[in-house]
Design brief:
By secondary structure, the protein is α/β, with parallel strands linked by helices. The chain has 23 helices and seven strands.
Length: about 425
């Protein structure tokens, strides 16, 4: 039994039509989570049949399948490992070898189905009566698939009414940025709830305000409607957004287009815009678009700027303050989230200050950087360098989210979890 034989078997039952469908379904396009994955077009039941018929395939041949660019080849290898691990004939030493082989190749489980169809029955089952430290190392990985393995593997424990690691890992991963981790966390919490509703309820009472919306919705799927509404109301409602942006009038149209679209989307959703009340540049573009869409805008401006006639005269509300610091403080206090469009020194200063406040636990709401035309790429590189040189912790990357479009920025302010004030303990490095 060789990798070449198994691959030929898979090719014989694949179809181009199914391959095209699977490529779309598993998000293989540029920038998507499955970018570059290739499909033979084999349905899972047929892959399972081929795996069952080739359970004795040696590990070195399975390694060739796991290194294959073909999705179904990797899946077949993983299913063979599952069947081998489950076998009553498997010895403890053989199961340990399979577990270690699996972990060595964890990054080859590079789509959610590859993780979900294998990790519980290998990683989870192996660790049932052992130290769970490997799961926490996986959770701390920078690799999306290793992180998903860490939480989905706890399904093996949940089946035995052992919930502690699921809850601890959910707490660790709830601030993750990727929707696939949100779904995995919510799914495992739902499994906990199926076994012990009160344990899940107690967890949600403590963490519902920090869980991403997707994770919470998955977790409470089997709750009665009144209880679902109760927990969904705990999600951070967004009624006002502070928008930082440029006042320059000499910038490219692409920036004005993004500002106008952001203002339109906020106004349409009846989310109040809070800004610096400027009457030119992107600040005016956001305000005018929000007002034209039926929204409201609160402008906060120092008195000396009013005296210079630098303020927008058509805003819903104009608040005069004495100092720039009062302006920034009031804008933050009145906002449920921050979105930063491109801007100059003033915008950069506002953005970095609000990130610092969040790092210190002084501002807990979502901060979204709208990276129009890759404007903020140099800033991200600077922040990465700060982490590499130990001026910041790697965890601090969770202080902000990045959007490429106004639509994505709106989605992120609703799905990014609130920051935990207790995390100020990691503010220093």
């Amino acid at each position: 039994m060789t990798a070449a034989f198994i691959l030929s078997e898979l090719r014989s039952v694949g179809t181009p039509e199914k391959a095209a469908h699977l490529s779309r379904f598993f998000k293989t396009g540029p920038g998507q989570y499955g970018e570059g994955d290739r499909f033979l077009g084999v349905v899972v039941p047929l892959t399972r049949s081929i795996a069952k018929a080739n359970q004795a395939t040696p590990l070195d041949e399975l390694q060739l399948l796991l290194d294959s660019p073909w999705h179904e080849a990797r899946l077949c290898a993983l299913l063979i490992l599952v069947y081998r691990f489950r076998s009553r004939k498997a010895t403890p030493r053989e199961r340990e070898a399979i577990f270690r082989f699996y972990l060595k190749n964890a990054r080859r489980c590079d789509n959610w189905d590859l993780v979900d169809l294998s990790c519980r029955d290998i990683v989870g089952e192996y660790l049932v009566d052992k130290d769970r430290a490997p799961l926490y190392r996986l959770a701390e990985s920078e690799n999306l698939w290793e992180q998903r393995i860490s939480i989905v593997s706890t399904w093996a424990f949940i089946r035995r009414y052992d919930f502690a690691d699921t809850l601890r890992l959910s707490e660790r991963l709830m601030g993750h940025k990727h929707d696939l981790i949100h779904k995995a966390v919510g799914w495992m919490l739902r499994e906990v709830g199926k076994k012990d509703r009160q344990t899940l309820t107690d967890f949600l009472e403590r963490y519902a305000t920090r869980l991403p919306r997707t994770a919470l919705r998955y977790a409470i799927e089997h709750y009665p409607e009144p209880e679902r509404r109760y927990f969904l109301k705990k999600i951070h409602d967004i009624s006002s957004v502070c928008v930082y942006c440029a006042s320059s009038t000499k910038i490219a149209p692409i920036y004005f287009n993004a500002a106008e679209e952001l203002g339109r989307l906020l106004g349409k959703r009846k989310i109040r815009v809070i800004n610096g009340a400027g009457n030119i540049g992107l600040m005016r573009a956001v305000s005018d678009a929000a007002l034209a869409a039926g929204g409201t805008v609160t402008g906060v401006i120092p008195r000396f700027m009013v005296e210079q006639d630098w303020y927008h005269k058509g805003l819903t509300e104009l608040i005069e303050v004495e100092t720039m610091h009062e302006r920034k403080q009031l804008m933050a206090n009145r906002s449920d989230a921050v979105i930063a469009l491109p801007g100059g020194c003033g915008t950069l200063e506002e953005l970095l200050e609000i990130i610092t406040w969040k790092q210190l636990g002084l501002y807990l709401n979502p901060i979204v950087i709208l990276n129009v035309n890759h404007y903020y790429d140099p800033l991200f590189e600077l922040l990465r360098n700060a982490m590499n040189e130990n001026f910041m912790r790697p965890q601090h990357v969770g202080l902000w989210a990045v959007a490429d479009t106004p639509e994505e920025a709106i989605r992120l302010i609703h799905t990014e979890p609130r920051w935990d004030a207790s995390l100020r303990k990691i503010a220093a490095i």
